[in-house]
Design brief:
The chain has 348 residues and is α+β, with helices and mostly antiparallel strands. Helix content is 68%, strand content 11%. The chain folds into 3 domains: 7-75, no CATH class; 78-178; 188-347, Alpha-Beta Plaits, CATH 3.30.70. Strand 2 (251-256) and strand 3 (259-265) form a beta hairpin. Helix 2 crosses helix 4. The longest helix is centred in the middle third of the chain and has 51 residues, at 128-178. The two termini are 33 Å apart.
C-alpha cells in the first residue's frame, strides 16, 4: 500500500482518527487506527461509505465488527476464502469428471469382454437354446451399457454446467474486488496494479506513459448543501464522462473521495493535457439536476494535474508529480489543468 500524503496531512488524518476512535469507544490498536486513518484520508470510498452508514444507524463498533471491517478492506482473507471455496468446488467437479470417465472406460471394457465371450461361445456351438441364451445375455449387456452411458452423459453435463458456473462466480468476484462500488470504474486496488504494469510495459517497449489526476471543484458544497445523494450523482456523472472520453488501452479509476485518476499508456504529456481538457469541458457542459426536486444545481468544474513517467523511477514519484500539478491548479483558482512542466516553470 502506497501513501501519497505529506507529513502535515498524515498528522492531521492521524489526529482525526484517534479523536474519532476515542469518541465512539474504539481501542486505538494498529488495525483500528488503519481503518480510521483511511476513513479520514478518503483513500477507500467504499470504506468511508460503510463507516458512515454504521455511524448514521448508531451501530456499535464491537471487537468482532472492527475485525470484520479490517479484514474486508485491508486483507485478502475474504477474497482468499472465496477463492479457496471456488477452487475446492472445481477440484470436486474435476474429481467427478475423472470418476465418470473412468466408469465409462470400465463400461466399455465390460461390453467389449461380453462381445468377445459371446463370439467365442457362438463359434463353439450350434445349439439353438445356447445361441438364444448368448443373444439374450448380449442384449442385456448392451442395454446396461446404453443405460449407464446415458447416466454418465448426464453427469458430464451437470459437471460441465457446474464448472462453467464456478468460472462465472470467479470472474464476478474478480470484477467486484477491482471495481468501485459507486461509479463502476476501477478502484484504487486495480489502479495500483495497472499503474505498475503500465510502467513496466512502457520501459520494455520504450513508450510514453502519462498519468492524469482530476478533482471535482468544491465537491463538499454538493454534499453539504444538497446531500450525499447529489454528491454521488456528481461522481457518477464524472465517471461516465471519463469513460466516454478514454480509449480501450486507458484505465480510469476512482482514486479516493472526489478524486479520479487516469492511466494513459502510449500517450505523451501534450495529448494527456488535451484529454484532460476535453473531459473537463464535457463535465462542465452538463447541468446537475436534483432528481428528487428537479432543482437545477449548476455546473460542475474540475481541476487536473498531468505527469509523464520517467523510465526507472518508482511509480510513486509519478503520482507525486501528478498530485503536485493538481494541487497547484487548485491553488491557482481551480477549473484548470496543469502539468509537471508548469511546476518546473514555477520553480524556475
Amino acid at each position: 500500500m502506497e501513501y501519497t500524503e505529506n507529513i502535515d496531512q498524515a498528522i492531521d488524518y492521524a489526529q482525526q482518527a484517534i479523536k474519532k476512535m476515542d469518541e465512539i469507544g474504539i481501542p486505538a490498536n494498529p488495525h483500528n487506527f488503519t481503518i480510521w486513518f483511511h476513513y479520514f484520508s478518503g483513500t477507500y470510498p467504499d470504506l468511508k461509505r460503510t463507516l458512515d452508514i454504521l455511524i448514521a444507524n448508531q451501530q456499535e463498533f464491537t471487537e468482532t465488527r472492527n475485525s470484520e471491517i479490517f479484514q474486508k478492506f485491508f486483507t485478502l482473507d475474504q477474497e482468499s476464502a472465496t477463492l479457496h471455496d471456488a477452487t475446492t468446488r472445481v477440484e470436486n467437479e474435476l474429481g467427478r469428471l475423472v470418476s465418470t470417465i473412468s466408469k465409462a472406460d470400465d463400461g466399455f471394457e465390460n461390453l467389449e469382454q461380453a462381445l468377445s465371450d459371446a463370439k467365442d461361445k457362438l463359434s463353439n456351438t450350434e445349439d439353438k437354446d445356447e445361441i438364444l441364451k448368448v443373444a439374450q445375455s448380449l442384449g442385456d449387456e448392451v442395454s446396461a451399457a446404453i443405460a449407464e452411458n446415458a447416466a454418465l452423459e448426464q453427469k458430464l453435463k451437470e459437471s460441465t454446467a457446474e464448472i462453467l458456473g464456478l468460472k462465472e462466480d470467479l470472474e464476478r468476484m474478480r470484477r467486484e474486488a477491482m471495481t468501485d462500488g459507486l461509479t463502476g470504474i476501477a478502484n484504487r486496488k486495480l489502479f495500483d496494479l495497472e499503474l505498475r504494469k503500465s510502467s513496466m510495459n512502457a520501459m520494455a517497449n520504450g513508450e510514453d506513459l502519462s498519468l492524469l489526476m482530476l478533482d471535482v471543484d468544491h465537491f463538499a458544497r454538493f454534499n453539504n448543501h444538497f446531500g450525499h445523494q447529489v454528491g454521488d450523482q456528481v461522481l457518477k456523472l464524472v465517471a461516465v464522462t471519463i469513460s466516454e472520453c478514454i480509449k480501450g488501452q486507458d484505465t480510469a479509476a476512482r482514486f479516493g473521495g472526489d478524486e479520479f485518476a487516469i492511466i494513459l499508456p502510449r500517450t505523451n504529456l501534450d495529448n494527456a493535457m488535451l484529454l484532460a481538457e476535453q473531459i473537463c469541458k464535457r463535465v462542465s457542459s452538463k447541468n446537475i439536476v436534483n432528481r428528487t426536486t428537479g432543482e437545477r444545481l449548476g455546473k460542475v468544474t474540475m481541476s487536473g494535474g498531468a505527469a509523464l513517467f520517467e523510465y526507472g523511477e518508482p511509480v510513486s514519484q509519478l503520482m507525486v508529480r501528478a498530485h503536485q500539478s493538481l494541487d497547484t491548479a487548485v491553488l491557482q483558482g481551480r477549473n484548470k489543468i496543469l502539468s509537471q512542466r508548469d511546476l518546473e516553470g514555477s520553480v524556475a
